[in-house]
Amino acid sequence: MAFVRSLIAALVVSFSVARDVNFIMPPVTNNTDLPEKLMVYIPGGNVPNVNYTDTLLSIQQHATDVQLTVAVLGFRTRLCIQTCPSSGACFLLNNQVQEAISLAVDAGFGGSTADDVLIGAHSLGGTCANYLVQGYPEVYNNGMVLHGGYVDESGDGALPTFPSPTLLVGAELDGGLARPGKFSTWYRQYMAVAASEGEAAALKRAAVHIIPSIDHSDFC
């Protein structure tokens, strides 16, 4: 894993010293019998995007029922929020996500760019992902995974009515804005969905999970 991170870091530096750039992580398996999926990943604030390669590689290795390509976004200032400060002003981030999807297709992704694209993010990237999906609900509605991030606490952007199936993943030792106590807001929403629609349905579209013994920064 360290070798993969070093290799990607070298490639990124070769393109630009001044900023992070989008890059592609191809599937770790080549099984044409499996469906293809693409996750576009939005890094947290002030975090080099290559820092996520270990986490994303682990996700690829454990996603054994699909061939998972990952497109990791890079930002000039390492702050996605400057490209998406609200759901109504997210066109720059949307453009960059679409560019990353095209980059993935050029790299060999053969799934549907309409139906097989998921959104993933960490920390501040989760705020941007939340705004992106709410700003373009007809485009990004196939699934979203947030590490140390969350959706709105209430209204149409809350977990039960969010435009896309969503998994919120928190860290037990997180002491910041994504601490488990904060996540209890969305866990109660998950429980409400489970009570009305059944646990299986809730896990598919409004899931919340806390990973024990890790901190917020362990995702990167």
The overall pLDDT average reads 93
Low-confidence spans: 6-18
Helix content: 25-40%
Question: Based on DSSP secondary structure assignment, what is the total number of beta strands?
Answer: 7
Task: Give the N-terminus to C-terminus distance in angstroms.
Answer: 13 Å
Shape verdict: globular
What's the gyration radius in Å?
Answer: 17 Å
Proportion in β-strands: 15-25%
The class by helix and strand makeup works out as alpha/beta
Strand order of the largest sheet: 1-3-2-4-5-6-7
Major sheet summary line: 7 strands, mixed
Question: Total number of helical segments?
Answer: 6
Order of helices and strands: HEEHEHEHEEHHE
Task: Describe what this molecule looks like in 3D.
Strand 2, helix 2 and strand 3 (67-72) form a beta-alpha-beta unit. The chain starts with a helix and ends in a 9-residue tail after the last strand. Mean pLDDT is 93; it is low at 6-18. Helices cover 35% and strands 17% of the residues. Strands 1-3-2-4-5-6-7 form a seven-stranded mixed β-sheet, with helices on both faces. Helix 5 (180-197) packs across helix 6 (199-205). The protein has 220 residues and is of the alpha/beta class. The longest helix has 18 residues, at 180-197. The chain has six helices and seven strands. It has helices spanning 2-15, 53-62, 91-106, 124-135, 180-197, 199-205; strands at residues 23-25, 36-42, 67-72, 117-122, 144-147, 166-171, 206-211.
Features:
single chain; 220 residues; alpha/beta; globular
Question: Would you summarize the structure shown here?
Answer:
This protein is of the alpha/beta class and 220 residues long. The chain has helices spanning 2-15, 53-62, 91-106, 124-135, 180-197, 199-205, and strands at residues 23-25, 36-42, 67-72, 117-122, 144-147, 166-171, 206-211.
